[in-house]
Design brief:
Layout lengths: L1 H31 L10 E5 L2 E5 L10 H17 L4 H13 L5 E2 L3 E3 L2 E7 L7 E6 L7 E5 H5 L6 E7 L5 E7 L6 E7 L10 E10 L5 E7 L6 E8 L6 E5 L6 E6 L5 E7 L4 E7 L8 E2 L9 E5 L4 E5 L7 E5 L10 E4 L6 E7 L3 E8 L2 E8 L5 E4 L7 E4 L9 E7 L6 E6 L5 E6 L11 E9 L5 E9 L10 E4 L17 H4 L4 E5 L9 H5 L7 H16 L8 E6 L1 H12 L6 E5 L5 H6 L10 H4 L5 H10 L12 E7 L8 H13 L6 E6 L12 H20 L1
Parallel strand pairs: 33-34, 33-35, 35-36, 36-37, 37-38
Antiparallel strand pairs: 1-2, 3-5, 4-5, 5-6, 6-7, 8-9, 9-10, 10-11, 11-12, 12-13, 13-14, 15-16, 16-17, 17-18, 19-20, 20-21, 21-22, 23-24, 24-25, 25-26, 27-28, 28-29, 29-30, 31-32, 32-34
Helix pairs in contact: 3-13
Length: 710
């Protein structure tokens, strides 16, 4: 017995030693694992008599095993250095997932005699698309279960669902790679069978003709990913007919069936110019007619009505005006002006009903909804109480109705869908995003403040924090920004964000120039040769928040993705001392090299946003801020960079090259981490909950930095 007892005691001590040693080894491995070093293979790039040496150009080859090995070594390094946050990541993931109602349903939308909606079931990642005939009390019909189609795929996305006019066929696109190349499928809703013919490499936008046999789709170039051609596909024939080809590579194109059902419309749009071609839906084999001559710099949208077309146009109107015409093919000078241009009001969108028009306008930094009676021309605005919010026109497929569907949200109000009777002003809440748990908006505060940029322009900032947040300079604050393409980041609700707010963070959005928050001029002042304004605005907002004691450099963090990642890359080159940590998601950081290579997806569409570096003045200006080219020998903040191997918008090699160069140049010992999703693209992981793991990683990175700074 003594021998047995002694053996057990010895074994117990050995186990304790192993546990202790294991912990120490884990800590040591996190500290001692050396950062990956990408091999330098110099490539000289010369234009305009100027040469740049790019040692990491070789990382562009996705098929090269060395490239994959490097990306995987970066992933291993990131996993190792953040291993001590694994428990926190798991906790954050479960916490964020726990706020989402697993068995949930979207707001139902009425269209052509059916109510359409999608719903989720417990423990399933993808939506189930359903409909009910005539009333919501009718029997449910499942038209597509994305969970079944996703089986066997690491990534899956379904989009562009379009039901034929006779309600018997469903067209939809499916992407299993995350390159935004969708395969067109057609499903017989009566038998449940998929038709045998599919079409690869399409955009997820399809338009049925009245005959329920012909459907129009847009095909994409598999190298540049540009949408270039529109085809007519007859479900009873093998060969598709080309009906339109876009020759100008600066244009995106697509096709849709408009609300009244009278027309099938091909849209063409560059950054600065619009174009449309129309075909009667009852004449699928006819010829598309151009709405008006394509004019450089003329941007417009068309909205067919019973006897006319409403047009939102920027002709002699920076913030757009409302025009109309009754004829296809008429000259712009023949159009009628219905609502004149207003310097302080941006006309963004509209909806057409039988007796009313509804306008989506932006002024004072907020979106407003305005209702207009067609006959009396009397107008009124739908009012909201909060000082910062997002609202907009929702899905309205019914023409002869007095009910408008719109959405609303704020930094503390979950996304809500309302039906609004434009005659009685009665507002009915149809669906509000449910936050599972004990969420109460009364526990949080929002603010809308302005901070002056260096040129005297007031930059709006939206903030949200949990009550009790102290403005003494010691509070952690995450500053978010984007500022490109006229895309406005409005103050919307995010349930995942609560995991930061509940841990003491303030979340702020810097509404920098390059968006359209304060009208079209706000966009024009943040693009092309005025792009530096975007970066200055963000830096000056950061400084202003520090001066106002919302935070301090030791507790200030920044985040942005895609073009917002460009923003992150530039500001940490120009003002690295302001931030303790930065998250750059799928960042566009190799601006000049990418924009010089027209074989890279979507490059040619961007010339009017950034400039064409084949022109010397554009080259020099873009080079002056390009994050990759302007990396310096200086201290940088802690940095987490994320990308996707199959990213269709910003190629993975941009962040990979950037991180490699930063490793070589930076003079600090701060974290520099690259995480590549080897299965996903620009939007990250697919599925309802999988993407939360990426958010959990980002939040754990920030929370861990903040914990170390205390």
């Amino acid at each position: 017995m003594k021998i047995i007892s002694y053996s057990l005691s010895l074994a117990f001590l050995i186990v304790l030693l192993q546990i202790a040693t294991g912990c120490n080894n884990k800590e040591n491995s996190e500290k001692e694992m050396s950062a990956p070093k990408a091999e330098k293979k110099d490539t000289t790039l010369t234009i305009h008599g100027h040469s740049r040496v790019d040692p990491y150009y070789w990382l562009r080859d996705r098929e090269n095993p060395e490239v994959i090995a490097y990306l995987e070594s970066e992933n291993e390094y990131t996993d190792n250095l953040l291993a001590h946050t694994n428990e926190l990541q798991d906790s954050l993931f479960e916490e964020m997932k726990g706020r989402i109602k697993e068995r949930d349903q979207s707001a139902p939308i009425k269209s052509n005699g059916y109510w359409y909606y999608s719903r989720y079931e417990e423990n399933k990642e993808y939506p189930i698309y359903c409909r009910k005939k005539e009333t919501l009390e009718s029997e449910e019909e499942i038209i597509l279960d994305a969970n079944k189609m996703a089986e066997g795929h690491e990534y899956f996305n379904v989009a562009g669902l379009e039901v034929s006019p006779n309600n018997k066929l469903l067209a939809f696109g499916a992407d299993t790679v995350s390159r935004r190349l969708y395969t067109l499928y057609i499903k017989n809703l009566e038998t449940g069978e998929l038709l045998p013919v599919t079409v690869a490499n399409t955009s997820p936008g399809y338009a049925w003709a009245d005959d329920n046999e012909n459907i129009f789709y847009t095909s994409k170039n598999t190298e540049t990913l540009l949408s270039e051609k529109v085809y007519r596909h007859n479900i009873n024939e093998q060969n598709d007919e080309l009906v339109y080809e876009e020759k100008d590579q600066s244009f995106y194109i697509g096709v849709y069936r408009e609300k009244t059902g009278e027309y099938i419309i091909i849209w063409n749009s560059s950054t600065t110019t619009s174009d449309y071609h129309l075909l009667k839906s009852n004449n699928p084999e006819g010829e598309f007619k151009q709405f008006t001559k394509r004019t450089p710099g003329h941007e417009y949208n068309i909205f067919p009505d019973q006897d006319k077309f409403w047009i939102i146009s920027n002709k002699d109107a920076l913030n757009f005006k409302l025009m109309s015409t009754s004829q296809i093919g008429s000259d712009i000078d023949q159009w009628n002006t219905e609502v004149s241009h207003r310097k302080d009001v941006l006309l963004e969108n509209m909806e057409v009903f039988e007796d009313h028009l509804v306008f989506e306008e932006r002024y004072n930094g907020l979106t407003h909804l305005k209702v207009r009676n067609k006959k009396t021309k009397k107008e009124y605005e739908i009012k909201f109480d909060e000082n910062a919010y997002i609202t907009g026109i929702g899905s309205n497929d019914v023409y002869d109705t007095d009910v408008l569907r719109f959405y609303y949200s704020s930094l503390t109000t979950p996304f809500s869908h309302f039906d609004y009777n434009v005659e009685t002003n009665e507002r009915t809440l149809i669906k509000q995003q449910e936050v599972v748990g004990e969420y109460s908006k009364e526990n949080y505060e929002t603010e809308r403040i302005s901070i002056k940029s260096r040129d005297g322009v007031e930059i709006p900032v939206s903030l949200v924090y949990k009550k009790g947040y102290k403005k003494n300079g010691n509070g952690p604050l995450l500053l978010y920004g984007y500022g490109s393409y006229g895309n406005t980041i409005d103050p919307y609700f995010g349930s995942a964000r609560l995991s930061l707010l509940d841990r003491g963070f303030c979340f702020a959005i810097a509404h920098v120039r390059g968006s359209q928050l304060k009208g079209r001029e706000w966009y024009e002042e943040g693009k092309m040769f005025k792009k530096q304004n975007t970066f200055n605005d963000f830096v000056d907002v950061a400084k202003g928040l520090i001066e106002e004691k919302y935070t301090s450099p030791e507790h200030l963090y920044a985040m942005g993705g895609s073009a917002g990642g460009l923003l992150m890359g530039t500001v940490i080159n120009q003002a690295p001392e302001l931030f303790n940590g930065v998250v750059a998601a799928v960042p566009f950081v190799d601006v000049v090299t990418t924009m010089l290579d027209e074989s890279i997806p979507l490059t040619t569409n961007e010339f009017d946003e950034w400039g064409n570096p084949k022109n010397k003045d554009s080259y020099e200006y873009m080079l002056s801020y390009s994050p990759y080219d302007q990396v310096k020998r200086q201290d940088y903040p802690n940095l987490l960079v994320t990308t996707g191997l199959h990213d269709s918008q910003v190629q993975y090699w941009e962040p990979a090259k950037w991180v490699a160069k930063l490793r070589d140049y930076k003079t600090d010992k701060n974290l520099l981490l690259l995480k590549t999703n080897m299965e996903a693209g620009h939007g990250g992981a697919s599925g309802r909950f999988e993407s939360l793991k990426e958010t959990a990683l980002e939040y754990a990175f920030l929370l861990d930095l903040e914990n170390k700074s205390l």
